[in-house]
C-alpha cells in the first residue's frame, strides 16, 4: 500500500496570469523553472512529469504530445511524460497522478505542470474551445434546457449559461441575491489586488459589480472569470527524497479526483464537490473546521457560495450568510480565494488547479505577502472541470498541511 | 512501496478495427462492454478509468472530457476518470497509469480504454491530426531535414516521411533491403488474415508489397499502417480483488513508459524503445529469451526490424536476419505481431497500445484462435507515440505472463 501522507510540495512556480502574446511553451517554461529552482533542484533531477492542458489542440494546433513539446526546450526529456486532460480540472488531475506515483514509491521527484493559452487573435477560437468541456453532441439540447439563450461562441462562453442556471437554482435554494454574488467578486478582486500574479484585482463596490455588463441573468461581466493565459507548476518529492535533498514543503494530506452525476439529487449541496471533499477529509483525517484557508473554483461568482456548502464550510443554504459574516475575507478565520480566485487571478483552464496549489503552498510557508493568512497550517484547493448532465465532469479536492 | 506484480488483466475487449461510420462513443462502448463482461463484472464495479485518445479534438470536435463523454452512456460515472494522451502511445500510457493505481493499492478494479476515430469524410482532417504528434512549430524544418518531400497533409501522413528517413538509416546500418521490409508486411498481413478483428489481412507476396504504390522511398503503401477507427479496453484488478471475484487473467510483470531523446546516439538500436525494454525486463525479472510472443509498433514495416534490435530479440544489425530466419512467424519460436500488427490489424492511434495488450492477453489465455502461439506464457507489447528531434515522444513496454 502506498504511503499517502509522504508526499511533499517542495517547489511551486507560476506565471502572472494575463491575456498574453507569450507562447504556451514560454509560459510553461517560466512556471517550471521557478518551481524546480524553488525546490533547489535541477531539471535533470525530475523523474517523471504530468502535464495538464485543456485546449491547445484547438487554440495552438498542438493536439498531441503537448507536454513533451513544452518541456523539451527546458532539457526535460527521456523521463516519462503524461499528458492529462480533465477540462478546467486538468492541472489538479495531473497533480493527482503525480502524487499517486510518488505515494506509490514509483518515483521520488516528479513535476506537475498545468499550462493554458486561451487567448487568440480570434476571440471565438478560445470561446469555442472552452465550449468543448461539455458533450458537444448535447450542447444545443443543454442550452435549451438551461434557458440561457444557447451557446453563442464568440460572444460568451457556453459555460456562463450553465453557471447562470446553477445560480438561479441556488438563489431559490438559499435565498442568495445578486448582491451576494457581487460580494464574492468584491472580496476576490480585493484579494487579487494583493497578488502580483493576478490578472485583475481592484477595490470594487457591490454597485460596480452589479452595473457591469450583463452576460446572462443573473451574471454580470465581473461575476465571470476572464479569458486568461498562464502556467503553474509544482515539484513533488517523497518525504525521504526531500530529507536527503534538504527540501521542505507542505505535505499533501489528501488528493481526490472524482467525476460527476452520482449523488443524491435532492441535496443541492451534494454532487461531485461534496463527494470529493468528503473523501479528502477522510483521507486527511481532517474536517472543514481544521482549514485555515481555501482556494475554490469560482469560475462564476455564485459557484463560490455553492462550494462553501459542498465543502461543509457552511450548512445547506448557509452560503450567503457565511459570505456576509466576513469570515471568508482576508482577516476572517477562513479566508477563501486569497489569490483572487478564478474571478480576479484569472482562469487559464488547464493551469488553474495547480495555481490553487501554488497559492496554498505559499500560504502554508508564510510566503503569501500582502495576502498572507496569519499562521496558516491547513489549506484546501477545490477544482472542477467540464459539465455533463447536471454535474462537473471532473472534480478534485486537495488538502495540504504545513507539516 | 507498491506491489508491482499484483496487477492482473482480468478482462479484454476490442472492436474490429476498420474505417467506420460508427461514432467514437459507439466504438468505445463495445470495447468496454466486452472487457467488463469478460472480467465477469458490471459497470458499477469499476473504481476508476484511464482513457487514451489522440485526436478527437481535431477529428470529432470533442477536445475535452473525451473519456467522460464516451463512458457516461454506459453508466460509468462518479468514479475518477482521467483523459490521457501520448499520441500513438496514448492507450499504453493510460494502461500504465491504471496499473500504477492498482499496484499502489489506491484502487482494486480499474478500466483502461483506448479509442480513436481517425477516418473523416475529409481525409485531410485525419492526416492533419496525425501530423500534430510532432512539434508543430518544427514540422517544416523537420521535413526538410528528412528529405522526404515535406508534410503533405491530405495525401499522406507526415509520419511516413519520418519513417522513410528511419528506414534509410536502418538500411545503411543493417543491410536491410526493401525485400526485408516487404517480408514484414507479408508476415503481418498473413497473421491479420487469421484475426477477425483486423482491418486487413491477406496472403501476399513480396512482389505484391513492392509493387504497391510508392508513398515515400523506400516505403510502399502496404508498408504503411492504414487509417483506422477502433477501440480496445482492459479491466485491471488487484490480485486480491481478482481472487475474491474468481476472476483470472495474465499478470502484468512490467509496465514502463519513457520519453525519447536521452540515449547513446552512436547506437542505432538504442533510443527510447531500448531504454523502455531494459527497464521492463529489469522490472519483470525476465529477458528477451523468456518471451513467447510480442506485439510491436510496426507503424511502418521497417520499424518492426528496428524494434527487434531495440528489444534485444536480435543483435545490432541483426533485424533482417531474424526476420529471414522465420522465427518471428507464426510457428516460429518467437512470433511477432500475431494480431497482424499495426500494418494489418490497423492503427487507430489512441487505441493501439491496448489492442496490443488485448492480443497478449488472448495469447496467454489460449484464446487467440487461428493465430494461437502454442503454450505462450510470456508476452511483450511495445508501443511508441509521437516524434521529437530524433526519437519517439513517448515509448511504452509492457510484459505480461500467464500467471
UniProtKB/TrEMBL annotation, chains A, B:
Recorded GO MF terms:
acyltransferase activity, transferring groups other than amino-acyl groups; lipid binding
Residue ranges of the Thiolase C-terminal domain?
261-393
Q: GO:BP terms for this protein?
A: lipid transport
Q: Which enzyme type, at the first EC level?
A: transferase
Question: Could you tell me the EC number(s) of this protein?
Answer: 2.3.1.176
Keyword entries, A-Z:
Acyltransferase, Lipid transport, Lipid-binding, Transferase, Transport
Report the protein name in the record: propanoyl-CoA C-acyltransferase
**Biological source species:** uncultured Thermoleophilia bacterium
Amino acid at each position: 500500500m502506498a504511503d499517502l501522507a509522504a508526499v511533499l510540495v517542495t517547489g511551486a512556480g507560476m506565471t502572472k496570469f494575463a491575456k498574453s502574446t507569450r507562447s504556451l511553451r514560454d509560459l510553461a517554461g517560466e512556471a517550471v523553472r521557478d518551481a524546480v529552482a524553488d525546490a533547489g533542484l535541477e531539471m535533470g533531477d525530475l523523474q517523471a512529469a504530468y502535464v495538464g492542458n485543456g485546449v491547445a489542440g484547438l487554440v495552438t494546433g498542438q493536439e498531441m504530445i503537448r507536454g513533451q513539446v513544452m518541456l523539451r526546450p527546458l532539457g526535460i526529456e527521456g523521463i516519462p511524460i503524461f499528458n492529462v486532460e480533465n477540462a478546467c480540472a486538468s492541472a489538479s488531475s495531473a497533480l493527482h497522478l503525480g502524487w499517486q506515483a510518488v505515494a506509490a514509491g514509483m518515483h521520488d521527484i516528479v513535476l506537475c505542470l498545468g499550462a493554458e493559452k486561451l487567448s487568440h487573435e480570434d476571440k471565438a477560437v478560445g470561446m469555442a474551445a472552452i465550449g468543448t468541456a461539455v458533450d458537444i453532441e448535447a450542447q444545443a439540447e443543454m442550452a435549451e434546457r438551461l434557458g440561457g439563450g444557447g451557446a453563442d461562441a464568440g460572444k460568451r462562453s457556453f459555460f456562463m449559461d450553465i453557471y447562470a442556471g446553477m445560480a438561479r437554482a441556488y438563489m431559490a435554494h438559499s435565498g442568495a441575491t445578486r448582491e451576494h454574488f457581487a460580494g464574492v467578486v468584491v472580496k476576490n478582486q480585493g484579494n487579487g489586488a494583493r497578488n502580483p500574479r493576478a490578472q485583475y484585482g481592484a477595490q470594487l463596490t457591490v454597485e460596480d459589480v452589479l452595473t457591469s455588463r450583463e452576460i446572462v441573468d443573473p451574471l454580470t461581466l465581473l461575476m465571470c472569470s476572464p479569458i486568461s493565459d498562464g502556467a503553474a507548476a509544482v515539484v513533488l518529492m517523497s518525504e525521504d527524497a526531500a530529507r536527503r535533498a534538504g527540501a521542505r514543503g507542505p505535505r499533501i494530506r489528501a488528493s481526490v479526483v472524482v467525476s460527476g452525476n452520482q449523488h443524491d439529487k435532492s441535496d443541492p449541496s451534494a454532487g461531485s464537490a461534496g463527494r470529493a471533499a468528503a473523501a479528502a477529509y477522510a483521507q486527511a483525517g481532517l474536517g472543514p473546521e481544521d482549514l485555515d484557508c481555501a482556494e475554490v473554483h469560482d469560475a462564476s461568482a455564485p459557484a463560490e457560495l455553492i462550494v462553501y456548502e459542498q465543502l461543509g464550510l457552511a450548512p445547506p443554504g448557509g452560503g450567503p450568510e457565511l459570505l456576509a459574516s466576513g469570515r471568508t475575507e482576508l482577516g476572517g478565520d477562513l479566508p477563501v480565494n486569497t489569490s483572487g480566485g478564478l474571478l480576479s487571478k484569472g482562469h487559464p483552464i488547464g493551469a488553474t488547479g495547480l495555481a490553487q496549489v501554488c497559492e496554498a503552498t505559499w500560504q502554508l510557508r508564510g510566503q503569501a505577502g500582502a495576502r498572507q493568512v496569519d499562521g496558516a497550517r491547513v489549506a484546501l484547493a477545490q477544482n472542477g472541470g467540464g459539465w455533463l448532465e447536471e454535474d462537473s465532469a471532473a472534480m478534485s479536492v486537495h488538502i495540504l498541511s504545513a507539516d
